[in-house]
Specification:
single chain, alpha/beta, 6-stranded mixed β-sheet, globular
Length: 203
Amino acid sequence: MERLADFAHRLSAALALLGVLALTPTVLHGGTHPAEARALPMNIADAVVSGDDAAPGLGPRVRSSHAYLRAMIDEAALRSSTFRSIVAAIEKTNGIVYVEHGGCQHGVRTCLSLEVTPAAGYRILRILVDARQPDWDVMGSIGHELRHALEVLENPALVDSASVYLFYANGDTKDRPFETRAAINAGFAVRNEVGSFAKGRLH
């Protein structure tokens, strides 16, 4: 009876969570609850299955339609070994990550959407970035969110917003819901490496 009661309780909680997810904007940022973000001005599923992107191995797995953000991704890859390792790890998954300029609520400047879009055998994720920040901060923030994206893509069970929500609801940081130590450390490492690279150029 206890097992039956426990199952009923878990089922009730799961159904309640699904009800919350239906009403909750699905964007993740470290240290905050999911925050709303503006929709991307593109159909990313169509983008994956059309043109050269339909062929495996063609085109980067970390992409952006925003010229400045593409430049920041390239610059971060040049300056930061941590950033390069995260991107290389994403390249080995079945994921494609779009990094686009967009707004996140509650004063959050970057966020990973909890939505997972399946297309042509890929799982498509999106990161929104407020590009109106100093370059070093943009690069560090992208590194942080890409680490979150890698956490999702390394787990084949994370295939929709509900599973991603549950994954981060049980995160490993008690004082910062929907955050992970790996993403925090990645963001700090990218910022430090970008800064050290710039200082090295000055000497």
